[in-house]
From TrEMBL:
<dbReference type="Pfam" id="PF01075">
    <property type="entry name" value="Glyco_transf_9"/>
</dbReference>
<dbReference type="InterPro" id="IPR051199">
    <property type="entry name" value="LPS_LOS_Heptosyltrfase"/>
</dbReference>
<dbReference type="InterPro" id="IPR002201">
    <property type="entry name" value="Glyco_trans_9"/>
</dbReference>
<dbReference type="GO" id="GO:0005829">
    <property type="term" value="C:cytosol"/>
</dbReference>
<keyword id="KW-0328">Glycosyltransferase</keyword>
<dbReference type="GO" id="GO:0009244">
    <property type="term" value="P:lipopolysaccharide core region biosynthetic process"/>
</dbReference>
<keyword id="KW-0808">Transferase</keyword>
<dbReference type="GO" id="GO:0008713">
    <property type="term" value="F:ADP-heptose-lipopolysaccharide heptosyltransferase activity"/>
</dbReference>
<comment type="similarity">
    <text>Belongs to the glycosyltransferase 9 family.</text>
</comment>
<dbReference type="InterPro" id="IPR011910">
    <property type="entry name" value="RfaF"/>
</dbReference>
<protein>
    <recommendedName>
        <fullName>lipopolysaccharide heptosyltransferase II</fullName>
        <ecNumber>2.4.99.24</ecNumber>
    </recommendedName>
</protein>
Length: 348
């Protein structure tokens, strides 16, 4: 049996789909399973023990380059990619993305059963038109992981166990250890990570508050502190560290996703805004103190027991807006609110 999983992006979304992959492998131990992903998150599935093949779409790069001198190369790469997508006839194709970009790829793929949710789910962008088996929509207020698992019911899969089995290898752990040593982090002692940046402006908390929080964590709990993020987050995190009186390491842009997961394996807990690394911390089994504003933690918060979600609880939240004139839902969260979440983590 050939099975194609379509989940292109982003980091958190791909992590939310890993339990589905493990459930499918458990149901079909001899199947050949392929995952179709985009570049930004493909490393989270490459080398996964439940996968046989990963197809990587470079869609964003192709779109960017097609108007420049590399246009011909982009067209050739896109053509070869589509050819590769179509070189297998799948028994099952499951669209877990439910966006136009995934729907088009489902439509281009060769398969007998093309399964996904029918119209009625938010942000679907008419992806259901590319399916030949449409599953009745479910409540969006169910957590994303459970919505993915519920889609498997049509296949007779009713798996209850949520497992990720992130493909973190010993090489990634060695790289993580070397990086931490390079930044003066000792192997002994309590290690804590803060991931302060998010893609949406409305998800951001004050740099000054992060500085104050970091100082108080070090003073109150004697922790060693590292900040994590992408290459584009380096300056913001450096600004936060510059506002501190204690020492902390800036690891932004210095880790792959697998190395970041290896670092999170070593921490006591993670403090994070609502962003991909928040889900990565939860996936490696660490408690997360998650700062939420415009989004709904019951939909996409850190999954599982032991996490602490910090919200201001305003009536206008969640609004799911990327732009806001006041951003009160984030501004009204105090340093003490987050420290109270940390205290509850320690108490557990």
């Amino acid at each position: 049996m050939n099975i194609l999983i379509v989940k292109l992006s982003a980091i958190g979304d791909v992590i939310h789909t890993l339990p589905v992959l493990n459930a499918i492998r458990k149901q079909y131990p001899n199947a050949h399973i392929t995952w179709l992903a985009e570049e930004a998150a493909c490393s989270l599935v490459e080398g996964h023990s439940a996968l046989d093949r990963v197809l990587v779409s470079k869609r964003k790069r192709w779109i960017k380059d097609i108007s420049g001198p590399l246009w011909l190369k982009s067209i050739k790469e896109a053509y070869l990619f589509i050819k590769e997508v179509r070189n297998t006839r799948y028994d099952l194709i499951i669209d877990f993305q439910q966006l136009l970009k995934s729907g088009v790829l489902v439509g281009l793929s060769r398969g007998y059963r093309k399964i996904g949710y029918d119209r009625g789910m938010e942000h679907m962008e008419h992806s259901y038109v590319f399916l030949n088996e449409r599953v009745p929509p479910v409540d969006m207020n169910i957590h994303a992981i459970m919505r993915q698992m519920m889609l498997l019911n049509v296949l007779g899969i009713h798996e209850k166990e949520i497992t990720y089995k992130l493909p973190v290898q010993e090489q990634n752990r060695q790289t993580a250890n070397e990086l931490l040593r390079k930044h003066g982090v000792k192997e002994s002692g309590l290690l804590v990570a803060i991931n302060p940046v998010a893609k949406w402006k409305t998800k951001l908390w004050s740099d000054m508050k992060f500085s104050m929080l970091a100082d108080r964590l070090i003073r109150q709990y004697g922790v060693q502190l590292v900040f994590t993020g992408g290459p584009e987050d380096q300056q913001t995190i450096q600004n936060i560290i510059s506002g501190m009186r204690e020492n902390a390491a800036n690891l932004a842009g210095k880790t792959s996703l697998k190395t970041l997961a290896a670092i999170y394996e070593k921490i006591a807990f993670l403090v994070s805004t609502d962003t991909g690394p928040m889900h990565l911390g939860a996936a490696v089994g660490k408690p997360v103190v998650a700062i939420f504003g415009p989004t709904a933690p019951w939909r996409t918060g850190p999954f599982g027991p032991g996490h602490q979600v910090i919200r201001a609880g305003l009536k206008c939240s969640p609004c799911f807006k990327r732009q806001c004139n006041t951003m009160k839902c984030m501004e009204q969260i105090s340093v003490q609110d987050v420290l109270d979440g940390v205290r509850r983590v320690f108490e557990r």
